[in-house]
């Protein structure tokens, strides 16, 4: 007898594109059992399935979750309808994993969020009928190979909660590091924020928001954006901070 979490994890692997044979080998569960769950299992506690999408319950939490999604998120269909939202988070940042989970539950209080362990990371996962409404940027293909443009209502939320949006982007595809240099024979250390993303559209969303907040940045190279000026790092420290 398998518990609900085990069955959900197996179905989530299928939804990720793994074959029935592959999931069976990874989990040690028979193909017949997994095939039966595809038909019989209730993937997660039922939602208000017929209700139209009413938008995020908490705009500030949504701005943070939007940043996480644009950086390390994806949406995939469930065999019986609805979709999975998945945000990849490194094992090294347990605080980030919990913040991501809390943001999902705040944005969609009627849904649930659970954690799927992967090699070196976890996928914070939630099943629902409205994730494609809340993240209309979902489409086939990799984000950096297609246009990423916010809808008007999304931009309004970002404008109202810019720091939450920046925090989500940095927590997904960014970091705070300590750089060093040598001047006059002495070693100097200074903090610096980096954001790395192959999508010029997503990078543009970051830099335009930083401009509005008065944060100085520069393009370190084609895929890396840097914040290194002392005053700007202080602003980032006050509102973003390092991952934990």
Protein model, in words:
There is one protein chain. Helix content is 44%, strand content 23%. The protein has 10 helices and 8 strands. It has a 4-stranded antiparallel sheet with strand order 1-2-4-3, with helices on both faces. A 4-stranded antiparallel sheet has the order 5-6-8-7. The longest helix has 14 residues, at 59-72. It is globular and about 70 Å long. The chain starts with a helix and ends in a 5-residue tail after the last helix.
Judging by the overall fold, what is the CATH architecture of one domain? Roll
Q: How are the strands of the largest sheet arranged?
A: 1-2-4-3
* Shape type: globular
Major sheet size, sense and barrel closure = 4 strands, antiparallel
Percent helix range: 40-55%
Which structural class matches the secondary elements? alpha+beta
The percent range for strand residues is 15-25%
Order of helices and strands: HHHHEEHEEHHHEEHEEH
Put simply, the count of helices is 10
Number of strands: 8
If you average the pLDDT, what whole number results? 88
What is the first-to-last residue Cα distance? Answer: 37 Å
Rounded Rg: 20 Å
Low-confidence parts lasting 5 or more residues at pLDDT below 50?
40-52
What CATH calls the topology of one domain is: Endonuclease I-creI
CATH-assigned homologous superfamily of one domain: Homing endonucleases
CATH class designation of one domain: Alpha Beta
């Amino acid at each position: 007898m398998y518990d609900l979490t085990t069955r959900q994890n197996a179905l989530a692997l299928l939804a990720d594109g793994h074959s029935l044979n592959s999931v069976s080998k990874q989990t040690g569960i028979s193909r017949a059992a997994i095939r039966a769950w595809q038909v019989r299992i209730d993937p997660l506690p039922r939602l208000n399935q017929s209700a139209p999408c009413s938008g995020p319950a908490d705009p500030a939490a949504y701005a943070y979750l939007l940043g996480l999604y644009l950086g390390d998120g994806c949406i995939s269909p469930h065999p019986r309808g609805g979709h999975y939202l998945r945000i990849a988070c490194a094992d090294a940042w347990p605080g980030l994993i919990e913040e991501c989970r809390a943001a999902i539950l705040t944005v969609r209080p009627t849904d649930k969020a659970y954690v799927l362990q992967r090699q070196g990371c976890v996928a914070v996962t939630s099943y629902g009928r409205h994730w494609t409404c809340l993240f209309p940027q979902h489409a086939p293909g990799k984000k950096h190979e297609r246009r990423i443009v916010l809808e008007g209502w999304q931009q309004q939320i970002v404008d109202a909660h810019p720091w939450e949006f920046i925090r989500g982007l940095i927590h997904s595809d960014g970091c705070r590091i300590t750089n060093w240099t040598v001047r006059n024979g002495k070693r100097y250390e200074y903090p610096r924020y980096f954001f790395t993303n192959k999508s010029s559209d997503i990078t543009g969303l970051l830099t335009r928001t930083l401009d509005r907040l008065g944060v100085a940045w520069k393009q370190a190279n084609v895929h890396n954006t840097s914040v290194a000026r002392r005053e700007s790092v202080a602003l980032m420290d006050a509102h973003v901070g390092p991952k934990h």
